[in-house]
Write a structure and sequence with these properties.
Shape: extended
Radius of gyration: 21 Å
Structural class: mainly alpha
Strand content: under 5%
Oligomer: single chain
Distance between the termini: 40 Å
Number of domains: 1
Number of helices: 4
């Protein structure tokens, strides 16, 4: 799932199996299965969320929900990419790297 404020950038993503939602539609995506929880945030992070919420004219809850959904989506993509790899593929790629000293500008 991709969470964005601009769905126009993701036209056609559905054909690739990508679910695109706006932060205001997250609760709709959850089909009413919402959970309430208390979270401790550093004050600076909370203030940033407040500023974003004001600028986007949404609630702080929506900003935090959107940020969490984006992070979970990124972890899912990373997990999917990792599942396509293997130690054998990694070692095969390393075998293609020349066994030479680095250039001078790459040494520091």
């Amino acid at each position: 799932m991709v969470v964005t404020h601009n769905t126009k950038d993701f036209v056609g993503a559905g054909r690739l199996g990508v679910v695109v939602k706006t932060s205001s539609r997250i609760s709709e995506y959850a089909e009413g299965r919402l959970m309430s929880m208390n979270v401790s945030l550093p004050d600076e992070l909370y203030q940033q969320a407040v500023e974003i919420a004001k600028a986007q004219r949404v609630s702080v809850d929506e900003v935090i929900t959107s940020a969490l959904a984006q992070q979970m989506s990124a972890w899912d993509r990373l997990r999917q990419r990792a599942s396509r790899g293997s130690r054998e593929k990694f070692l095969a790629a390393l075998d293609k790297v020349p066994d030479v000293e680095p250039d001078e500008h790459d040494r520091s």
